[in-house]
Design goal:
Elements lengths: L1 E2 L4 H7 L7 E2 H9 L2 H8 L10 E6 L10 H14 L4 E6 L12 E4 L7 H13 L4 E3 H9 L2 H5 L3 H20 L2
């Protein structure tokens, strides 16, 4: 089953566990970027704490709607997951900040208007500054506790996610 990431919670509940399930956003991460890198970045969600800064990066400059996924829904899901307020910054188009180090995580859109080279360039910028990056679909699935299932069709990405979680476990346990 391939679903819209915004419907993950319902589709996961309505689909038998033996049936593979992922989202369009995760497929786009594989097509346009580096699925494994996005999966590694999703592990950082487990270590987020109230007050941490998160950058939500959108490749286009669309007009936001009332219940916008990047400005409303993802922040809400992540804050529910963390159990407190996070500080969100949003950027659109080519406005990715030069210095990403103030952020504990970058959550990137599906990049439907970008080409693969642009997405990989953004991933490289995050990686070179030591800032984890994931995409909308993985952030949603992680905040809902279903990322393992959403990545199951992609064993290498699932393994990278688990490796990153294991590497971060001591810091997460220490609360840092």
């Amino acid at each position: 089953v391939v679903t819209d990431s915004q419907a993950f919670e319902r589709v996961s509940a309505d689909t038998p566990p033996a049936v593979p399930m992922t989202s369009f956003s995760i497929l786009f991460a594989r097509f346009k970027g580096d699925l494994t890198e996005f999966a590694r970045g999703a592990a950082a969600i487990a270590g987020l704490r109230p007050g941490d800064r998160v950058l939500v990066a959108e490749a286009c400059s669309h007009h936001p709607v009332e219940d916008d996924i990047g400005r409303v829904k993802i922040p809400r899901w992540l804050q529910q997951h963390v159990g407190g307020a996070l500080e969100f910054c949003q950027v659109q188009g080519h406005d990715l900040p030069d210095d990403l180090t103030p952020f504990r995580l970058v959550v990137h859109c599906g990049s439907c208007v970008s080409n693969r080279r642009e997405v990989l360039s953004r991933l490289l910028r995050c990686r070179s500054q030591g800032v984890p990056v994931t995409n909308y679909g993985m952030a949603i699935a992680a905040s809902l506790g279903i990322l393992d299932r959403a990545l199951r069709p992609f064993p290498a990405a699932l393994a990278a996610y688990h490796e990153s979680l294991a590497e971060a476990a001591p810091a997460i346990a220490a609360g840092s």
